[in-house]
Amino acid sequence: MAVELTAHHLIAQHRPTLDRALEAIRTRAYWSPHPEHPKAYGEDGSLDAAAGKAAFDALLGGRLDLGQPGTDDWTGGEVSPYGIELGITYPHADLDVLLPAMRAGQGAWRDAGAEMRAVVCLEILKRINDRTHEFAHAVMHTSGQAFMMAFQAGGPHAQDRGLEAVAYAYVEQVRTPDTAEWTKPQGKRDPLTLTKTFKPVPRGVALVIGCNTFPTWNGYPGLFASLATGNAVLVKPHPRAVLPLALTVQVARQVLAEAGFDPNLVALAAERPGEGIAKTLAVRPEIRIIDYTGSTAFGDWLETHARQAQVYTEKAGVNTVVVESTGNYKGMLSNLAFSLSLYSGQMCTTPQNLLIPRDGIATDEGPKSYDEVVADLARSVGGLLGDDARANALLGAIVNPDVKARLEAAAGLGEVALASREVANPDFPGAVVRTPVIVKLDGAKPDAEAAYMSECFGPVAFAVAVDSAQDAVELLRRTIRDKGAMTVGAYTTSEEVERAVEEVCLEECAQLSLNLTGGVYVNQTAAFSDFHGSGGNPAANAALSDGAFVANRFRVVEVRREA
Amino acid sequence: MAVELTAHHLIAQHRPTLDRALEAIRTRAYWSPHPEHPKAYGEDGSLDAAAGKAAFDALLGGRLDLGQPGTDDWTGGEVSPYGIELGITYPHADLDVLLPAMRAGQGAWRDAGAEMRAVVCLEILKRINDRTHEFAHAVMHTSGQAFMMAFQAGGPHAQDRGLEAVAYAYVEQVRTPDTAEWTKPQGKRDPLTLTKTFKPVPRGVALVIGCNTFPTWNGYPGLFASLATGNAVLVKPHPRAVLPLALTVQVARQVLAEAGFDPNLVALAAERPGEGIAKTLAVRPEIRIIDYTGSTAFGDWLETHARQAQVYTEKAGVNTVVVESTGNYKGMLSNLAFSLSLYSGQMCTTPQNLLIPRDGIATDEGPKSYDEVVADLARSVGGLLGDDARANALLGAIVNPDVKARLEAAAGLGEVALASREVANPDFPGAVVRTPVIVKLDGAKPDAEAAYMSECFGPVAFAVAVDSAQDAVELLRRTIRDKGAMTVGAYTTSEEVERAVEEVCLEECAQLSLNLTGGVYVNQTAAFSDFHGSGGNPAANAALSDGAFVANRFRVVEVRREA
User: Locate the Aldehyde dehydrogenase domain: which residues (chains A, B) (predicted)?
Assistant: First the structure.
């Protein structure tokens, strides 16, 4: 096989980007090599909007042949949350053929070393980036995200998270030198001398179990962390969101082959309806690493049963915002309204419980009662989503019938402060588009607690009346400890309350956003700077990304000889 | 409380040592700040030999009161493998009092920051180092190690491993800055700006479950890694080896208090005979980290049941040396003889299976048959241990009756090439001292396989006849994969065999020593340079020490505010 991508070429091309990423994770200042604006694409080989749309359309109704060994069938059946059937089929694998084939190329991939693996990963990300417009449609029509969000979160932001994982993986592997000369003095006798070599070795085959809502954003960190540390990676997409990860696998296989490696180092495991191969795969002895995003029940099952593997899970949590006081009432309301509305609240980071003292809060517009705060927030959401075009652009579509059912049931849990509204999507009449519901609950009532202490994934927010700031802080603590949280927000002008909330977040290990009133939202994190999750509360056992996310995906084998 | 050890003083005192340790783990060249020679002690406040012995003697028959809260009783009953009763009692804890007390000081310890925690740990290690002579007797009379080994492995080498863990813990925590300014351009609009703070936070209370044979060497990495990352540490010593860890806890509590921290951040959990509190402790919700050295059965139990904790285990393995050919036959024999004899083979790193082709091996002294190699090795061990004084100094004492029973049973497993010999210890008539047994086994026979494929912990070596070098390599692979290995050794002059053995070690993840014929032994590793275990085969799920050993003992909590 002619190697088209030489190490020299790849390193020259990508090493500066890698170095810049390494600097970014050290300083955590803003940085991204992946433009966010759709108009930034279309030159230097990247697809523009029209070409991306055409590429996506060309995939519909076809077979995505990845050239994988052990393909015994074709399967697929994705229906877009916007109502169209994708009609794409993917390879279905005989695991007893595919898994051994994936291991065959691991020796060469291991011996290529950390830098070569990193720049190959960066080439994969570069080619994905070039096809961002195509991926945007793939993400939109599997997750139900609105186009602009699918473009940004599914494109450059996901690519950023992938690159961040590569940077962490690289730096972790080069902490130990390739060789060392060891000379130990022995007094008057000759010193003891050894020559030592150290090599990062992979654990085996890594499994990425994708999710429905953020197939690329949540899939890339594990995929690239495992690949960059020398492992082969098998991607098991969510059956409703196969396409974005299938395209990712396709690009990875192409790049690996062009760089002279075995393309089977990355493969797809699409499943037949109801096949449930995640459970089968998760306990296969070949699988030594698992990355999973999804329900707490299956995440806990993986942590308990996949004992042969390192298991990284992002599960469910209950996200809280403490609303105690504010110096910018309008800013707070509009910031919260946006956070509740974005992608119909279908983010693992969307706030669910707004804890508001029943005696009201102090604001720059004077004191506001609990009822006023809730009514003003409802008005703010209503205003934000009053125009259908803007509502569609913000909300996207409801990803699946379960979310719709939860939304409809939520209205029965308490007094509805803002009813959910059906929004028509003129481009996609089949899309199910709904505005968020805001439900008032009394934090002191046990039946209310049953509601607000469970994750109600989707466009549902609970305005929970609490006795005091102290009560809010204690409820926050209990919620994080018992249910986990991907995010915590707080609005307060009191230094004392701020300290108390911060202390709870430090003790219970949750990421805190304080007094956001502008264009940054509690549910958004930026790669290279913000950690996604903490890995220290029940919502997730890992954070994206840090040293712990990569350090145990490989091991270092030492060989020592007398010098 | 008057703080006697200020941050300024501690940083001035220990920061240079920390920096030197950080350099050592990067270069992995030889380094240690802890002298190995007994005569190096006695100045600058350290105990000399006589003072150390006197300090140890003063402990005998007394009560070691650590001033711990919740002490409801006193317990102890250590009998030295050298025959003397220590007669020391230790606090027995009411866990419902002790564990909450251990958490009380965690906020201040957390807020002190990574550097302060590191230098406090270094002060603890310094004071332990000053008492190395005292610790040597404590280790000798609990583990059964001979004095010089107890001195070195239980003293400076253990202190090195502790310092190494502190260095890894420190550098891991400072990879993320304390604060960051984040400014994201927004085209013509004002940029988005956030001020972010990042703080390493502990997981909770860490549990160290000590072992009988290397209470300090195997205990210090987990203890110091957890403490340096902000956790409180509860030390549960092996009931037969309490004293070395009780003294360690005593020193740690003194230093913590003098530095203005809560001494309850480190505590001892001694148990009554048969109480088995490790199982109780391991699943307590307060316990979030466990470090364990011991049997595979209990290590596996911990990994399966202590789901609320990060579990780091060093269990049992079957260590192999492939003997294929050598350019230094005498050197090989004497090196192997020493490895088999040191501490009566009671090291997790001692070779057990010597794989020797049944057709013999090539050497610089001409071809040697399988029988000749085994006979020459037996003679070499016999010569090394022929003098009782030297034998006592090398072998130490048999640590417990189980080891003695296994040794006695081993002679029945095959043809005995070298019988175990009882050695009298004139200083300690009660000591059980035995030379190793070497048993010949045919690798192809199933009943032999049952013997050599199990760990036979103690002074037992199997000379396993194999069909060929290739057969040896395959058996090596199977042994590591199925049973795990802390160490692998190989003797070969063939580049092809060397590559094959190396490839097996890379694929099955085991640490390899090649052609050792001088004063470095396969069972010894040096902190800052050698990894102890790989963390990638069944013998241990962690290596001492690397990034993975520390990275998940803490989490980073981010607080972000609009700038």
Answer: 93-520
Each residue of A225-263: pLDDT tens digit? 999 999 999 999 999 999 999 999 999 999 999 999 999
- Whether B491 and B410 map to the same domain: the answer is yes
Report the pLDDT averaged over residues B175-191: 96
Whether residue B8 lies within 8 A of chain A, CB to CB, comes out as: no
| AA identity, residue B362 | A
> Is there a domain that residue A530 lies in?
no
Domain boundary among A291, A315, A339: A315
Give the model's pLDDT for residue A549: 98
Residue B161 CA to residue B150 CA, distance in Å, equals 15
Give per-residue pLDDT as tens, B300-355: 999 999 999 999 999 989 999 999 999 999 999 999 999 999 999 999 999 999 99
Residue B273 lies in a domain: no
ipTM over 0.85: yes
Contact A133, A53 (CB under 8 A): yes
Residue A254 at interface with chain B, using a CB cutoff of 8 Å:
no
Report the CATH number at residue A371: 3.40.309.10
Segment (H or E) for A483: helix A469-483
Does residue A64 surpass a pLDDT of 70? Answer: yes
CB interface of A with B, residues 494-513, below 8 Å: 502-503, 505-507, 509-513
A326 and A296 within one domain? no
Q: Minimal Cα–Cα distance from B544 to chain A, Å?
A: 11
Please name the member of A28, A304, A555 whose beta carbon is closest to the beta carbon of B307. A304
A91 and A233 co-located in one domain: yes
One domain, residues A302 and A355:
no
Please say if the pLDDT value at position A1 is more than 80.
no
A459 — phi, psi (to 5°)? -80, 65
Residue B277 has a pLDDT of: 97
B333 and B457 within one domain: yes
DSSP-assigned states of every residue in A518-542: SS--TT---TTTS-BS-SSBTTBSS
Q: Does B385 lie in the same domain as B310?
A: no
Inspect the interface and report whether the beta carbons of B555 and A543 lie closer than 8 Å: yes
Angle, alpha carbons B265-B268-B272 (nearest 5°): 155
Does residue A283 sit in the same domain as residue A343? Answer: no
pLDDT of residue A67: 98
Residue B420, min C-alpha distance to chain A (Å): 31
Q: What is the distance in angstroms between the Cα of B453 and the nearest Cα belonging to chain A?
A: 20
Is A289 within the bounds of a domain?
yes
Tell me: the pLDDT tens digits for B206-230? 999 999 999 999 999 999 999 999 9
> Residue B313 phi/psi, 5° resolution?
-125, 140
- Tell whether A243 is covered by a domain: yes
Q: Write out the H or E segment, with its range, that includes residue A53.
A: helix A49-59
A418-A419-A424 Cα angle (round to 5): 125
Q: Which residue from A minimizes the CA distance to B553?
A: A548
Residue that finishes a domain, picked among A266, A300, A315: A315
3-class state of residue B508 by DSSP: helix
Predicted confidence band of residue A2 (pLDDT cuts 50, 70, 90) = low
Size of interface A-B (CB pairs under 8 A): 189
Round to whole Å and give the CA distance between A345 and A460. 7
pLDDT value for A3:
72
- For residue B4, pLDDT over 90 is answered with no
Same-domain check for residues B117 and B205 = yes
Q: Cβ contact (<8 Å) for B506 and A186?
A: no
pLDDT tens digits, residue range B78-123? Answer: 999 999 999 999 999 999 999 999 999 999 999 999 999 999 999 9
Closest CA to A390 of A341, A463, A429, A461: A341
Range of the domain at B420: 320-514
DSSP bridge pairs for B514? A561, B490
Please state the domain count of chain A: 2
